Amino acid sequence: MSTDQLFNVPLKPLDASAIPVHPTGIALQRSVEGTGGVPLLFKQIKIRDVQLKNRVIVSPMCQYSAVDGFMNTWHMTHLGQFATRGAGLVIFEASAVKEHGRITPNDAGIYLDEHIAPMAQIVAFLHTQGTKAGLQLAHAGRKASCYSPFRTHGEHTVVCPKEEGGWPDDVIGPSPIQQWEGGPQVREATKEDIRNVIKAFGEAAKRADKAGFDVVEIHGAHGYLINSFLSPLSNQRTDEYGGSFENRIRLLLEITEHTRSVWPASKPLFVRLSCTDWADGGWTGQDTVRLVPYLRDRGVDLIDCSSGGNVPWQKVPSHEQGWNVPFSRDIKQNVKDIMTGPVGGIVDYRFAECVLQKGEGDVIFMAREFLRHPTWVLDAADDLEVEVAWPVQYERSKRFAHGHTKH
Ligand SMILES: Cc1cc2nc3c(=O)[nH]c(=O)nc-3n(C[C@H](O)[C@H](O)[C@H](O)COP(=O)(O)O)c2cc1C
């Protein structure tokens, strides 16, 4: 057999007759009973009909490793590792709802029915570990048609020309303002473009449901299309999608309404926001607190609190652990009946537990720490002295509180 032929033989799916379905990272009953309670990080949480076995969420992370939007064995290995190590929910990377809504030609996409099958296999694997799967639905807006950072030595901001698979003549934003000097030329989105984008979010959500995802998250952060409509620094439209606060939030609300109308009522809908632009004259934390009730009233269950990314001259005052916690806390304190979770710099188990104990969020999102330390959840359990399930295959190496191992 040639290598090509070998590569075309699909891997055998996991066989339940050999491997029991096992909720890795769940607090064991004997541990709960022994201590009179578990740390909040390991207290299960139900959002609509979806029960998370713990409150640790892997934040979406672009891998720039897809071709034509299709996920592959890289994504299975990458996302699967977080499930075998016990994360409660893994949110798959920003997946474009339209082909030209990708950041790079190597982004994942959910703009074709054919994208469903590879994602469904990864979702099914996560489910064998009792880990829930979320998909982040995205449109890159002014940041579309760039090279993958692998091709530009880590630079995210190099325009990818047509000859290399880019689409620099079809990059849309609220107004014809480049995101950065030398970035793609931005075309002002027409009403038809806007209608198409809203429709595409709905189509993508329907595909996500078919793939078995438990959660979808609308990407409203980091300067991508939705965020650029929210901010007066990037949105200078004079129609009903620009100008006043109510007009700038209109695109997000219409996307939310449409997505919620096609996404099952039993499944949670999250929105990720850049809670501030970190720039004078831009979107602020107060704007976020004002926006959240509109989202809640349209069926959003949880706000994933991030910040920045819309203008290159932003000034982030600190990248200390938990720099977005104050935004999550402000929403919790000012808006009823909506959950939140902060992301940003969180690495420490007790810091994360403390955020939950103080009521500053309902869940914790973490990205880079999971790349450095994929066993974070199991190690957090150890540190916080709660016994959790390990994958049956790894039982022989299991640590108990204070680092003791079974022999
Ligand atoms: C490799 C990488 C890829 C990322 N891709 C996405 C993405 O697809 N969607 C998104 O909203 N944020 C993305 N982010 C941002 C993270 O989700 C997270 O918000 C940020 O890294 C701060 O959290 P951390 O300090 O825990 O890493 C990415 C971050 C990294 C490091």
From TrEMBL:
Keywords: Flavoprotein, FMN, NADP, Oxidoreductase. GO terms for molecular function: FMN binding; NADP binding; NADPH dehydrogenase activity. CDD domains: OYE_YqiM_FMN. The lineage of its organism: Eukaryota, Fungi, Fungi incertae sedis, Chytridiomycota, Chytridiomycota incertae sedis. This is NADH:flavin oxidoreductase/NADH oxidase N-terminal domain-containing protein. Pfam families: Oxidored_FMN. InterPro entries: Aldolase_TIM, OxRdtase_FMN_N, YqjM-like. Signal peptide: none annotated. The keyword Flavoprotein applies.
